[in-house]
Design brief:
14 helices, 40% helix, Aspartate Aminotransferase, domain 2, transferase, 2 domains, 13% strand, Aspartate Aminotransferase, domain 1, 404 residues, alpha/beta, Aminotransferase_I/II_large
């Protein structure tokens, strides 16, 4: 067996299953899950119909680089969304469809990490795929703490010059999982300057980029910032986007990577062997989804309604703030509630109210003497508005029983 497999941490939901083992929820409470970040809003009709209209495509092998029509649709969307009219991405060299961002984020590290002493920097807390990708590529993870005093942004100042020199890849996520923090243009410009100075790549996970709450200020993207600085070839920049969150299509497994043509040429070569291609009906549905913004606006409205309903309920018992993006809440437990222990509180939620959520520590790592996720909860507002409201009331009841 690959000895690096032994270094992989249990996935958060595996740890959650262990935490809840033996607990019996009350029979008079219908189960509600705020655990998995799986969108529950309806899939757009245009994507459904596109699959039906293209079922014959299942009889053909798909090309690894995807159909030209899909790449052109993606390039058009990127150009509109991120103001790239002066340097639109080339569909032939700077766009590559992928089977969802999860597999691409993982595979990317296997392609680009080269040195035996390589470091891969990643947010802490953050999406566990970044860490697994680094470890299985033979690199050491370099954890960038995301703390409240830094706006939950990965702390670039926590890295020494010597560590940056070893760094070959940096994962960023904006809006962030689990905090919903948005990396502004100044932050992205600084990260790009570091990449140029120390010669590493930036992998920007932007799969939550279309879930934000100020319609006048959509989150900036890495390609957008690179273009503003004159980097119109997007050197050292690769962005990852998905239809899972934007369009409520997690089961479609459809996304794309875009950016530096030299890097994507090598990634395409890797993927020719890796084999994660999109079937023609999936590509047709993807074209339809990327071409429609009506359902995306409705999606944001639905998440905005949940925040408006839930935050006033939770505010008296949790230290919770309104996120700039994503569909997560990342509240801190007050010390008087279960001693501020996130595992104790999450198990009590299940035992007393039949509600699932994730302890914050499961999304973080102990680094520099602390785990930035300790004492926090990740609440995924993916259920309907009534269920989210009911879940908030259940959280309040448990908090009051445990000392609020």
């Amino acid at each position: 067996m690959n000895p690096r497999l032994a270094r992989l941490q249990p996935y958060p939901f595996e740890r959650l299953a262990g935490l809840l083992a033996g607990a019996v929820p009350p029979a008079d409470r219908a189960p509600i899950s705020l655990g998995v970040g799986e969108p529950q809003h309806p899939a757009p009709d245009c994507a459904r119909q596109a699959i039906v209209d293209n079922l014959d495509g299942f009889s053909r092998y798909p090309a690894t680089r995807g159909e030209a029509g899909l790449r052109e649709t993606i390039a058009d969307w990127l150009t509109r969304r991120f103001g790239l009219a002066d340097c639109p991405p080339d569909p032939d060299t700077q766009i590559l469809p992928v089977a969802g961002t999860r597999e691409a984020l993982f595979a990317f590290a296997q392609t680009v990490v080269a040195g035996p002493d390589a470091r891969v920097a990643l947010p802490n807390p953050g999406y566990q795929i970044y860490e697994g990708a680094a470890l299985l590529a033979g690199a050491e993870p370099l954890y960038l703490p995301c703390r409240a005093d830094n706006g939950f942004r990965p702390d670039l100042d926590a890295v020494t010059a010597a560590q940056w020199r070893q760094c070959e890849l940096v994962y960023l996520c904006s809006p962030g999982n689990p905090s919903g923090a948005v990396l502004d243009a100044d932050y992205l410009a600084r990260a790009l300057a570091l990449a140029e100075r120390h010669d590493f790549l930036l992998a920007a996970d932007e799969c939550y980029s279309e879930i934000y709450f100020d319609e006048q200020a959509p989150p900036p993207g890495l390609l957008e910032v690179a273009a503003r600085q004159g980097n119109d070839r997007f050197q050292r920049c690769v962005v990852f986007h998905s239809l899972s969150k934007r369009s409520n299509l997690p089961g479609l497994r459809s996304g794309f990577v875009a950016g530096d043509a030299d890097v994507l040429r090598q990634f395409l070569r890797y993927r020719t062997y890796h084999g994660a291609t999109l079937g023609p009906p999936v590509q047709a549905a993807s074209r339809a989804a990327w071409s429609d913004e009506t359902h995306v606006l409705a999606n944001r409205d639905a998440y905005r309604a949940k925040l408006d309903a839930v935050l006033p309920i939770l505010a008296p018992v949790l230290d919770v703030t309104r996120p700039a993006g994503s569909f997560y809440l990342w509240p801190a437990l007050p010390e008087q509630v279960a001693g501020g222990d996130d595992e104790t509180f999450i198990r009590a939620l299940f035992e007393q109210e039949n509600l699932r959520a994730v302890p914050g520590r499961y999304l973080g790592r102990e680094a520099g003497g602390s785990n930035p996720g300790n004492g926090r909860l990740r609440l995924s507002l993916v259920a309907g508005v009534p269920e989210c409201i009911e879940a908030a009331h259940r959280i309040v009841r448990v908090a009051e029983r445990l000392g609020a």
